[in-house]
Amino acid sequence: MQDTPAFRVESLTPEPGTARLVMTGELDFTTADEASAEVAKALAEGVGVLELDLAGLKFIDSSGMAVVMDAYTGAQERGTAFRIVALTPYLRHLIEVVALDDVLDLPA
Questions:
Q1: What confidence score (pLDDT) does residue 62 get?
Q2: What tens digit of pLDDT does each residue of 7-58 get?
Q3: 85 within 8 A of 107, measured Cβ to Cβ
Q4: Coil, strand or helix: which one is 64?
Q5: Among the four 20, 49, 71, 97, which has the fewest Cβ within 10 Å?
Q6: How far is CA 103 from the centre of its chain?
């Protein structure tokens, strides 16, 4: 049996007014609520910039993608800048396949 990495969200403040959520493990239907709660908490604090670091994700499903898009939408509704600061090649490919790279600000 293969062990799956535990999902974690770490909230960082790389600079004043910026919240960076570093997500590791598997972002799926079993962990989406936890991730959504952290996004909501960061946005409720009134930050000017919301950043997601997704480089530590080993897996993401449609529920996880919904968390990312809800974070984007929530930021837009509040006038908060939103960006993804790190992601895996797999996740970049997934975002490109579903044409969200036209919407999301991805790192180079």
A1: 95
A2: 999 999 999 999 999 999 999 999 999 999 999 999 999 999 999 999 999 9
A3: yes
A4: helix
A5: 97
A6: 14
Rounded to the nearest 5 percent, the helix, strand and coil shares of the chain are 40, 30, 30
- Six-digit token pair at 98? 């579903």
Q: What is the dihedral of CA 97, 28, 65, 95, to 10 degrees?
A: -30
For residue 102, the one-letter residue type is D
pLDDT at 108 exceeding the cut of 90: no
Place of tokens 């996880």: 64
Q: What is the mean pLDDT of the chain?
A: 94
Q: Which of 39, 29, 48 is CA-nearest to residue 9?
A: 39
- Residues paired with 19 in a beta bridge: 50
Tokens linked to 76: 């837009």
Q: Quick check: pTM over 0.90?
A: yes
Quote the tokens at residue 23.
Answer: 């997500």
Number of neighbouring beta carbons within 10 Å of residue 2: 3
